[in-house]
Every structure is written in C-alpha cells, then in structure tokens.
Amino acid sequence: MRAAVVVFPGSNCDLDTHYVLKDLLRIETELLWYRETDLKDYDLIVLPGGFAYGDYLRAGAIARFAPVVQALVEYVERGRGLVLGICNGFQILTEAGLLPGALAPNLGRKFLCKTVKLRVENAYTPLTRLCREGELIELPIAHGEGRYVAPPETLAKLKSNRQILFTYHGENPNGSLESIAGIMDETGTVFGMMPHPERNCERLLGTGDGLKLLQGMVEEVLA
User: Fold this and answer.
1) Which of 35, 41, 154, 180 has its CA 20 to 30 Å from the CA of residue 118?
2) Residue 211: its pLDDT value, please?
3) 84: which residues sit within 8 A by CB, 6+ positions away?
4) Cα separations (Å) of 126 from 84, 171, 183?
5) What is the sign, positive or negative, of the torsion defined by CA atoms of 43, 189, 187, 104?
6) How far apart are CA 139 and CA 211, in angstroms?
7) pLDDT number for residue 56
8) Single pTM value for the model
C-alpha cells in the first residue's frame, strides 16, 4: 500500500499526518508537492490541514486550482483509491466539488482551537470502520472557517444516504448546520472532516482516538 500527503504552500499538518501513516501505521508514505499530477500509484491520498495559499479569498478557493487537485478529480472519477481531507483539506475538497456543501466562517468570527467531542453517525465506512455507531470520540479543532453549510436538499440527501460521518456532541463550536463535523461523498471513497485525527493519535496527546480513523482507512485498502 502507498499513501501520499499533499503539501501546499501554507500546509502545516503535513508532517504530522506523514508521521502517523509512516511511523505509527507503518505504510509507505510520501509527501507530495502540490504541482504533482501523477497520482495513479497511490491507494490513499490525504489533503492535510493548514492555510493553503494563505486562505486568501476564502479557505481552499485558490488551492482548488492547484495541479494536484485537478489530477485528484480524475483520480476520484476513476475510482483509484481513498481520499481524506482534514480541516483545510476538507475545505479544498468542497471548493473542488469533490464533496457537497461549503465551509463558512465560524459563527462569532473567531478562530477556534480546542478539543471537542464527536459522535460517530455512521460506523460502516473506511474512515469509521473501527468505531461503534453512536460512539463518542475526542479530537482537536483549529479553524476559522469550519461552519458546514449546504442547501436543505443537500442536507436531506446527506442524511438519507448516511453520508454524515461525525457530528459535534454537546457543543456545536462553529455553528455548523446539523452540527456536521465530517461527511463523505456518495461513492464512499472521499472523506472530509474539520477535526484533526492526526493530532490525537497517541495517548501522550490525549485519548488517541484519531489513530483508529486513519488505521481504518489503511485496513480498508489492505483488506
């Protein structure tokens, strides 16, 4: 199995994600510069958190035109592997049309950096396969534009297709509609979430809950 962590100008969670995949989960993992376009040899591609292109205009709006994202669209259309967007990566995936909806500025207009509780809404996906339905997990958030928004018909479709993977539990920190914290596309191969699993993959950093999310994707590919 081969994984790639995309590096944009402004990424700041690329090394964290690379460390988890390569050193903790022990799979072949490369850092992939945003100008690359050859993705065919990767089974898992992660768009990490950060501030791609400084989040000018709005988060992910410029990064969606990067060569690697243009290649990623074809990668997804051909069903080559799994894709995960974390925080800024989630924003980029929505801007590129690979996930529905959008990420708007947090209610209150404040940057949020804290640990939150999430409820697992669907445990039958590559990202959540090692979780239980309804399980509560803890992960950190760090974003200024994390409020998930979508038209009513899109929200209804997400619910009916069970594409909502995580919701904020107890507190909706950014004002996301339906408390949505993470979703997937209709094919079940593209995933996006605002909380950072890579920042809580060892007990030294908290509960370690994030590890089983990334481990689930790896096990899905190797199954």
Assistant:
1) 154
2) 98
3) 44, 45, 46, 47, 127, 191, 192, 193, 214, 217
4) 10, 26, 12
5) negative
6) 10
7) 87
8) 0.97
Residue type (1 letter), 129: R
Helix/strand/coil percent split, the chain, to 5:
30, 25, 45
Residue 167 near residue 121, CB atoms below 8 Å: yes
For the stretch 123-174, pLDDT in tens is 999 999 999 999 999 999 999 999 999 999 999 999 999 999 999 999 999 9
Distance, in Å, from the CA atom of 180 to the CA atom of 183, rounded to the nearest integer, reads: 8
- The runs of H, that is alpha helices, within 53-185 are 67-77, 88-95, 152-160
Which residue type sits at 108?
A: G
CB 32 within 8 A of CB 4: yes
- pLDDT for 111 equals 96
Give the whole-angstrom CA distance, residue 153 versus residue 140.
30
Asked if pLDDT for residue 35 goes beyond 90, the answer is yes
Q: Return the structure tokens found at 55.
A: 């989040």
Domains and CATH numbers, the chain: 2-222 (3.40.50.880)
Of the CA atoms within 13 Å of residue 118, those in its CB half-sphere come to 33
pLDDT, tens only, 42-59: 999 999 999 999 998 899
Residue 186 has pLDDT above 90, yes or no: yes
- Show which residues are catalytic: 87, 196, 198
